[in-house]
Amino acid sequence: MASSVVLSRLAQLESPITPITDKSIGYHRLLEQISTDSLSDEFATNLSAFVDSVLGDSLGIVAARPLIGAYVNALRAVSSSGVKIESGRHALEALQSRAVSFEEQDASIREILADAFQEQEDYIEAAKILQGLQLESSQRKIPDEVKVRTWIRICRLYLEEDDTTSAESFLNRAKNLLYKIEDKELNLMFQLSQARILDSRRKFLEASQAYHGFSLSLALAEEERAFALSKAIVCAVLAPAGPQRSRALGKLFKDERAVQLDEYGILEKMFLDRLISPQEVTNFAKKLAPHQLAQTADGSTVLAKAVIEHNLLGTSRLYNNIGVVELGNLLGLTAAKSEEYAARMLEQRRLIGRIDQIDGVIFFGGQEGNGDKGTVNQANKDGDHGVRRWDKNVQGLAEDVERVSSLLQETFPVCSKPPIKLGRAY
Fold it and tell me: What is the pLDDT of residues 147-192, one digit of tens each?
């Protein structure tokens, strides 16, 4: 409850016998008096009582509006986030029925409250408070830049709590007006938010491309660019093995800055299709975010699945064929599980080859799939790429034998029989 001194003074100001001019001056003086006593336990309730009195029946909207503006300035100067939240919430409730008449003051209070909640790391409440802003107002013209900045801020607040669904909805609003914005900082914030959403949704390939593009901006500090490049490498490593990831790894591998990062070792092995050991996977996993370590439908983590698929692709570079048991030993899986991974990659056109389930052998096509159905069908036309390769080898052997025979006839003409002449009888 407000102090008796403040309540008494407010009662005098609300009296009908007090002239309007004296009321305005009296409210301003009282607000200054309340602000000087900011260490009092009744500070928040005194401010709330002031708002209730100003919005009461004793003053009209024209007289009340500058007084609420003065209250906003006083609230902004308060150092305690707790007081800001307590008094600001009360003020918003009091203004709720008159929000149209006090739109600008309502917006200012919401921004102050959002800062206070953010200071207390209550990001969801900060986002909810900002959602109440009237950005499509008929009372005042709001610039597109203010709208975009507000939506991106709400998006980033939701991302702090990993609420990607809500974050994406506000990012999409900002996207519709982004082409009108020339502010580089806002555009960079949009790119970073987009990359974080893709990352959180496990769309790692797209996230890697977004982070890499963000890291190339010269407007950023060097450490921020290095951090974005590091995130780009992590997302590329976690992406499903295949030609698209290979292209992304190639861009990152050729980036001169990548050599200075801790993630360069695993990036190099991924790009060069070298097998990755379990110890390297364990060390890399320590740097990942919780959502990057989440389990997939088959019970494995995103990182484990990515490494298994990479090692399977690397194995296809080393061997023409391999038994499913031996492949399982190489990948650290059971024979059935290794066959399941190979079958999935073949089905998704990320690997060329075939599986002989009777003999338990996987035959690799000697090249990486490109994800294009037509190309893979052409490579596997008439059923078997291996048979065609066998035919080609036989043809080459026959040509070599014929060549040796011709050389022998030229070198030792006595030993060779003359060619048979059939004449014209045939």
Answer: 999 999 999 999 988 898 999 999 999 998 888 888 888 888 999 9
Q: Which residues contact 302 (CB under 8 A, 6 or more apart)?
A: 202, 204, 238, 292, 293, 294, 296
Phi-psi region of 411 (alpha: psi -120 to 50; beta: other; left: phi over 0): alpha
Q: Which residues pair with 361 in a beta bridge?
A: 323, 356
Work out the angle between the directed axes of helices 81-95 and 103-119 (0-180°, nearest 10). Answer: 150
Is the Cα torsion angle 238, 244, 246, 249 positive or negative in sign? negative
Dist CA 202 CA 386 (whole Å): 36
In the sheet where 351-356 sits, what is the strand order?
321-323, 361-368, 351-356
Contact 135, 147 (CB under 8 A): yes
φ, ψ (nearest 5 deg) of residue 301 = -85, 165
Q: Under the phi-then-psi rule, with left for phi > 0, alpha for psi from -120 to 50, and beta for the rest, what region is 356? A: beta
Six-digit token string for 219: 């407007």
Q: What is the structure's pLDDT at 108?
A: 92
Residue 366 has pLDDT above 70, yes or no: no
Phi, psi of 3 (to 5 degrees): -65, 155
Rounded Cα distance between 36 and 376, Å, is 78
Instruction: Give long-range contacts, CB 8 A cutoff, 24+ apart: 157-166.
Output: 157/114, 157/118, 157/123, 157/124, 157/126, 157/127, 157/130, 158/123, 158/124, 158/127, 159/193, 159/196, 159/197, 159/200, 160/123, 161/123, 161/124, 162/200, 162/291, 163/124, 164/197, 164/200, 164/201, 166/127
DSSP code per residue over 62-108: HHHHHHHHHHHHHHHT---HHHHHHHHHHHHHHHGGGTTTTHHHHHH
Type of residue found at 28 = H
Distance of alpha carbon 426 from alpha carbon 423, whole angstroms: 7
Phi, psi of 76, rounded to the nearest 5 degrees: -65, -30
Q: Tell me, what DSSP letter sits at residue 419? A: P
Rounded Cα–Cα distance for residues 389 and 286 (Å):
45
C-alpha–C-alpha distance, residues 295 and 376, integer Å: 31
Could you tell me the two tokens for 360?
């338990």
Q: Model's pTM, two decimal places?
A: 0.71
**Which of 304, 287, 185 minimizes the C-alpha distance to 238?**
304
- In the predicted structure, residue 368 carries a pLDDT above the cut 60: no
